[in-house]
Amino acid sequence: xxxxxxxxxxxxxxxxxxxxxxxxxxDLGGALRGFRCVHSPRFARQYAQFAARQExxxxxxxLQFQLSDQSLLLLPEYHQRLEV
Length: 84
Description:
By secondary structure, the protein is mostly helical. Helix content is 74%, strand content 0%. It folds into two domains: 34 residues, no CATH class; 47 residues. The longest helix is centred in the middle third of the chain and has 24 residues. The termini are far apart. The mean pLDDT is 83.
C-alpha cells in the first residue's frame, strides 16, 4: 500500500479518490523538486507573503459575498431555519 494513505488510516485499495489524491501528491512532490524557486534562500519569506496575501484575498471574497445581493437573498431562509 501507499505509506501516506496508511498513515492517514485509509486502508490500501479501498478508496479510489484517496488513491488518486495520493498519486497526485506524489507527482506534484516530484515536480516541486525540479523548480528552481524552492531552492532560493528567500523562498520561505516570499511564500509566507504570498500565502498571507492569498488568505486576505479569500477573506475579501467572503466579505464581498456576505454583502452581496445573493447573500441577502438567503437571509430569510436562514432565519426560517433558525425558527425550526
